[in-house]
Amino acid sequence: MLAPGEFIPLLERGGLIVELDRYMFEHACAWYRDNILPGGKKISLAVNVSRLGLVQEDFLRYYGSVKERYGIPDGVLELEFTESVLMNDDAVFAQLVCGLQKMGFICSMDDFGSGYSSLNVLKDLPLDVLKLDVMFFRRSRDMRRERIVIRNVIGLARQLHMRTIAEGVEFPEMVDFLRGAGCDVVQGYVFAKPMPAQQFAALLCRMEGKPMLPAAPL
Sorting pLDDT into bands at 50, 70 and 90, what band is 26? Predict the structure, then answer.
């Protein structure tokens, strides 16, 4: 097993990251069509977009055409952008975000808190979702200070009309705190570990009390 940090830089240097972006996005759409659209409960599905993928001339046209081809409804596909992607050209990126939102995509800032210019980015870009980085939820030496920061970040996002998602949460007591602080979504090992697509489809069916649907491989 290789961590993303080991192979993604190689793909970026060789320009192959754009192919990986599009491969994963199309397979995600195929999985959604096969497993959710035939009567399943509507869920959000998030897919990462790289810096190189974002600057392709056909970026909007490609992502919009794939979404349309697979019949994915508006408001369920989320495209995730890291802070390093957003810092290049705020004006150009803001136009891309508006274009994606008009096509029914949700746009999120991933790994918020892992860099140093996050607040500067937030004030200029019309994003829909703020994803709090796992570093927020590593046990710190001063729990009181940690929770003051988290609570205020969630409040800031709410004032900017952004939903908040806490990533990498491992402890039930943190779930309780985040619920009380108004965080919209919590994800992490406290609920489940990453799993193959077919296993996830089976989990959804058990939660909804339905027979198993065929799963498209990711």
Answer: very high
The residues, any chain, with a CB within 8 Å of residue 63's CB and separated by 6 or more, are 25, 79, 100, 103, 105
Is 50 exceeded by the pLDDT of residue 212? no
Given a cut of 70, is residue 112 above it in pLDDT?
yes
pLDDT at 116: 59
Q: At what angle do helices 90-102 and 59-69 cross, to 10 degrees?
A: 20
pLDDT of 65 strictly over 90 = yes
pLDDT score recorded for residue 214: 41
Q: Which amino acid is at 214?
A: P
pLDDT number for residue 136: 82
87-120 residues labelled b (16+ CB within 10 A) or e (exposed): beeeeebeebbebbeebebbbbbbbbbeeeebee
Per residue in 126-135, pLDDT (tens digit) is: 899 999 988 8
* Residue 102 neighbours by CB under 8 Å, 6+ apart: none
Structure tokens belonging to residue 23 = 């491969």
Using alpha carbons only, how large is the chain's radius of gyration in Å? 18
**3-class state of residue 141 by DSSP:** coil
How far is the CA of 124 from the CAs of 17, 89, 91, 158, 205, in angstroms? 27, 11, 8, 16, 40
Distance, in Å, from the CA atom of 137 to the CA atom of 30, rounded to the nearest integer, reads 33
**What would the DSSP string read from start to end of 173-184?**
HHHHHHHHHT-S
Under 8 Å CB-to-CB from 137, ≥6 apart: which residues? Answer: 166, 168, 169, 170, 171, 174, 188
